[in-house]
Write a structure and sequence with these properties.
Length: about 425
């Protein structure tokens, strides 16, 4: 558990608005499975579903509860693309970057298909607005859009020019934007718990409060907790930032960066309906971005700010309310902030995802860099394909090269802060 983690999870709107089933048993004694998945977030559960459907026996070991990590706390924005499609194109070239882009388009279809097939009630709303603050940012967004339109031929975009912005959002903060009708948003914890239920229905055995403390490598790997072990042919490490130093090489390639969300009291119905057309999800295009959306019960869920030290920023509720009112001054200044929470995104140096194998039979998925609601689900599917002998799409990602953060464990934070300061300054220009 990272610093101040308990405070980050306990006051979440998501946790307060689901009914969890009783805890699954924790692992005790020796078990056997074809595949052992470490981590009960989107990546691990998605892989488990796909593997079970291909006839494998699967055990998921979750150190806390299912959805306890980023998958149960995130902004809920289910978006096409990657955190940095540019980094992917630079390394893989245009044709393979397009294949990777299409993986995320398929990821949105996968979310819709799973919601329909397994009856997951997770408040999915289609529609996403990417909005630029100021003229310079609007020009950059337009340029990005034209290139991406040419390279990816994604048919769901609609450009919003300055004169039209007011038809999409009741705010004067933004200069122009892009609407994507295929992306959208959902209640992340409901979706994650729905995936767990779907996995169980497919025959997956899930153990909670079963933290993996060691892995003995070999053709028959042994995945160990304090009270038991799983012998298996394949392992999937899907523990993300919480894996800690279980595999030190992986830990050095991602940096946990805190990001935070507040939830207001429900807004008056008419006001909620007036703020964002069709209740789309919204992000601004700043490097340290603000992201927000309305919940089903008309709360504004407003996310942003970052922490590189894993310590929650002070005065979170007030500062986030001020950010929200910079966009929507019409929201009552005395509106209560009823929830505040956060979590850690797994940033890689180049913001490209980091998928691969630490041994031929030990796979890992990490480095979603704050863009994993769609991609983590697909990543799980690609691992299942790879284990079934169809590794071409998994290997597309595994070809991406990554470097450890400079300075190692102790000094990587100051190095990252310096880098981020540079981008923050650019946001302000
Ligand atoms: C506040 C916040 C907002 C975000 N907003 C968005 C957004 O709007 N859109 C978007 O696309 N992405 C967003 N993200 C990122 C997205 O949530 C993640 O990319 C995604 O959920 C990662 O899924 P995962 O399965 O890899 O990891 P996680 O969901 O973190 O799951 C990992 C699980 O593994 C378990 N685990 C770790 N180590 C062990 C071990 N040794 N033994 C057993 N279990 C272990 C953990 O307990 C945890 O439950 C956000 C993230 C945060 C934190």
């Amino acid at each position: 558990m990272l610093a101040s983690e308990e405070a980050l999870t306990s006051q979440s709107y998501y946790a307060a608005s689901v009914r969890r089933p009783p805890a699954a048993p924790s692992l005790a004694g020796a078990e056997r499975a074809d595949v052992c998945v470490v981590g009960g977030g989107y990546a691990g559960l998605s892989a488990a579903i796909e593997l079970a459907r291909r006839g494998h026996s699967v055990i998921v070991l979750e150190g806390e509860r299912v959805g306890w990590g980023a998958s149960g706390r995130n902004g809920g924005q289910a978006l096409v693309g990657h955190a940095s499609d540019d980094a992917i194109e630079q390394q893989l070239g245009a044709a393979d970057a397009k294949r990777a882009w299409n993986v995320t388009v398929e990821g949105l279809d996968l979310i819709r298909a799973r919601i329909a097939e397994f009856g997951i009630d997770c408040d999915f709303v289609p529609g996403y607005l990417s909005l630029a603050v100021g003229e310079r940012k609007a020009r950059a967004l337009r340029q990005w859009f034209e290139t991406a339109q040419r390279d990816y031929a994604y048919p769901h975009w609609r450009w919003i020019d300055h004169a039209d912005v007011g038809n999409w959002i009741a705010s004067s903060r933004f200069h122009a934007g892009l609407h994507d009708s295929h992306s959208g948003h959902l209640h992340p914890l409901k979706y994650c718990l729905g995936l767990a239920q779907a996995a169980r229905a497919c025959g997956v055995r899930i153990f909670e409060h079963s933290r993996v403390t060691a892995i003995e490598r070999g053709a028959a790997a042994r995945v160990k907790t304090v009270a038991g072990e799983v012998r298996c042919d394949f392992v999937l490490l899907a523990g993300n930032v919480y894996l800690g130093d279980l595999v030190p090489k992986l830990e050095s390639r991602i940096m946990p960066v805190g990001t935070y969300i507040v939830g207001t009291a429900p807004l008056p119905e008419a006001q909620a309906a007036s703020l964002i057309r069709d209740r789309a999800a919204v992000c601004d295009t700043n490097f340290v971005l603000d992201y927000f959306r309305l919940s089903r019960d008309n709360r504004m869920l407003y996310g942003g700010r970052v922490s590189y030290s894993t310590v929650t920023p002070p005065n979170l509720a007030q500062s986030m309310k001020a950010r929200m009112r910079r966009v929507f001054p019409q929201i009552d200044p005395d509106i209560a902030i009823e929830y505040q929470w956060g979590g850690f995104v797994d940033i890689t140096m180049n913001r490209a995802p980091d998928f691969g194998r630490v041994e031929p039979n030990i796979y890992y998925l990490q480095g979603f860099s704050g863009h994993g609601v769609v991609l983590a689900g697909m990543a799980g599917k690609l691992v299942a394909d790879a284990i079934a002998g169809q590794a071409s799409r998994f290997d597309l990602y595994a070809r991406l090269s990554h470097h450890p953060f400079p300075g190692g464990r102790l000094l990587r934070t100051p190095a990252l802060v310096l880098g981020m300061l540079y981008y923050r300054l650019r946001d302000l220009l």
